[in-house]
Write a structure and sequence with these properties.
The protein has 289 residues and is α+β, with helices and mostly antiparallel strands. It has 13 helices and 5 strands. Strand 2 and strand 3 form a beta hairpin. The radius of gyration is 19 Å and the shape is globular. The chain binds a DNA duplex (13 and 12 nucleotides) through helix 6, helix 10 and helix 11.
DNA sequence: ACCCAGGCGGGCG
DNA sequence: CGCCCGCATGGG
């Protein structure tokens, strides 16, 4: 708690970011109309909350002394505060539909998360819903994570999960995805070092991830976007698909491949950011949370 | 009861 | 290639 990072002069809306269901391992508590965000980084815990004058403060809830990590470096990277969101908006604000979403969810940030954490979470996400995904992830953290304090466990890294069995994972609620998880753990322990991949090479990343059984185009794109921060990934899930069809194709069904081409033409190299605004606004047409 | 969820692999034509 | 089906599970 001694070190505090004041986030100023930055377009950053904590509530929209948390509710956009993109950092699926974050915890959020509401007070008044604000959100107190809490997340683990390895064996440390970081909190972010609004101050009276509507600024944001980030601080250590618990800092593991073995980590040389600087708080501001972590927060700046995690929420992409190194780039000007208004510049991104200029790049993707190509029509009135996306303009509405940008204005409504102004300050919603994409996050950059640990590659393995992102991989595991989005393997679980397939044929599933946000609420259940969060529950299953929580079970896996409880089962395989390392204890940080009385309330918190770290997100289990590959080594923590090297002996996971199908039965164990099913008990966490993973269902048929259990064998995909086991397969991915094995693959990334023995074949590919997730932390040595080039974040800027979209094609190479997509090829590597889709080679793995249990990871297809959509999950690979989520990993590339939210695990490596590559904005050229445009994950198309049911919400984004519906939203694109509704807003740009008169509600007529389109093939995913055509929607990918459309996104590339419409939003270019920043399409990943546009995707998050479409996803969040699409979901909120139906329900909150 | 029925439908759906941040999809994917496999089988078939 | 494209298309279609089954898949575990819990909430609305």
């Amino acid at each position: 708690m001694d070190e505090i990072f004041q986030i100023e002069n930055t377009n950053f809306n904590l509530k929209h970011t948390f509710e956009s269901a993109q950092p699926l391992t974050f915890y959020g508590d509401y007070y008044e109309d604000k959100v107190l965000l809490e997340y683990t980084y390895k064996n440390s815990i970081i909190g972010i909350k609004s101050t009276e004058n509507n600024k944001l403060n980030a601080y250590w809830i618990l800092k593991n002394n073995n980590e040389k990590l600087k708080l501001n470096d972590e927060v700046i990277r995690r929420f992409r505060l190194f780039e000007d969101l208004d510049y991104i908006y200029k790049k993707i604000n190509t029509d009135s539909n996306i303009d509405i979403a940008i204005k409504k969810y102004n300050g919603m940030r994409l996050t950059i998360n640990d590659p393995w954490e992102t991989t595991l979470v989005f393997i679980i996400s397939q044929f599933n819903n946000v609420k259940r995904i969060r529950g299953i992830v929580k079970n896996i953290i409880n089962r395989y994570g390392e204890k940080i304090d009385e309330k918190h466990k770290s997100f289990p890294m590959l080594e923590n999960m090297s002996t996971a069995t199908k039965e164990d994972l099913k008990n966490c609620g993973t269902g048929f995805r259990a064998e995909y998880i086991i397969n991915a753990v094995d693959y990334f322990i023995n074949n590919v070092d997730l932390n040595k991949l080039n974040p800027n090479n979209y094609e190479e990343l997509h090829e590597i991830f889709t080679e793995i059984k249990g990871i297809g185009d959509k999950v690979a794109d989520c990993i590339i976007l939210m695990g490596y921060g590559n904005l050229r990934a445009f994950p198309i899930d049911v919400w984004v698909k519906r939203q694109l069809e509704r807003l740009y194709f008169k509600g007529e069904k389109q093939k995913v491949s055509k929607l990918q081409d459309f996104a590339w033409e419409q939003w270019g190299d920043y399409r990943g950011y546009a995707q998050q605004y479409l996803f969040h606004s699409g979901r909120n047409l139906t329900f909150k949370n």
